[in-house]
Amino acid sequence: MLELKHIKKSYDGMPVLRDISIQVGDGEIVSILGPSGCGKTTLLNLILGITDADEGQILYNGEDLTHTVMEKRGFNIVFQDYALFPNLNVYKNIIYGLKNRPGISAREEVEELIDLLGLREHLDKRIDQLSGGQKQRVALARTMVMKPRILLLDEPLSALDGVIKESIKDRIRTIAKEYHLTTIIVTHDPEEALTLSDRVLIIDQGSISQYAQPAEIICRPQNDFVRKFILNQLEIKRNNIYALFGGGAARGKAV
Ligand SMILES: Nc1ncnc2c1ncn2[C@@H]1O[C@H](COP(=O)(O)OP(=O)(O)OP(=O)(O)O)[C@@H](O)[C@H]1O
């Protein structure tokens, strides 16, 4: 289990995270959701270990990692821009990290991931020959072969369009469940967070607004921010779709 206890962070005297305390269970998918500038990336970076908290503790299975360097935490991130090596083909990108830590994944495990992520037919391609969704899958495979204890994803779907987005969502879900891998995802899209995650952490100006399962958030929004910012966006989307198909927007009224 990952535990954040009373995490606080300021930049130049301006509080960015105010007293964040959460627990993330093993194998759970948690999305960090909130508007631009609310502190999502800062929180992800704190968990990863590239930013230090001013106060508070980060524990993993009871072990205090607050002052442990990133390399020793055993967490791994897929960045928004995928950060793949353009001069290497897909297969070499996937196994790149194993150079320094051979044996961490057996050959059969690498092959299994390649199939799970549907990358077999692309293995000899250069990165610039891939679509956004294919690059995202390569980035996931490259991270997964290193067997992270926690998988962190920074806006993994924002550059992808509808159908591909759904397929990557499925694969993220499959991987998290198949490998019982704790997965933490940063997103600003309520639909994405609520349909992909076991629990959603909604942040408003550096504070927890609500941390709950999607159904709980939809049925029992804890405050006006959740109602207005999160649920209203979904209502507007739904009404637009109904209007498009002639069902009339009146079916659902914005909260
Ligand atoms: N290194 C830094 N130095 C100073 N201020 C920073 C730094 N990093 C982030 N901030 C500030 O902290 C606040 C939160 O930033 P953060 O990147 O965590 O937000 P976010 O929710 O991820 O936003 P976005 O969705 O736009 O990426 C912002 O006001 C930002 O300007």
Automatic annotation (TrEMBL):
Enzyme type, top EC level: translocase
GO molecular function: ABC-type quaternary ammonium compound transporting activity; ATP binding; ATP hydrolysis activity
Top-rank taxon: Bacteria
Keywords of the record: ATP-binding, Nucleotide-binding, Transport
InterPro entries: AAA+_ATPase, ABC_SmlMolc_Importer, ABC_transporter-like_ATP-bd, ABC_transporter-like_CS, P-loop_NTPase
The keyword Cytoplasm is assigned to this record: no
Keyword Transport: yes
Domain ABC transporter span(s) in chain numbering: 2-230
Gene3D superfamilies: P-loop containing nucleotide triphosphate hydrolases
Enzyme Commission numbers on file: 7.6.2.9
Official protein name in the record: ABC-type quaternary amine transporter
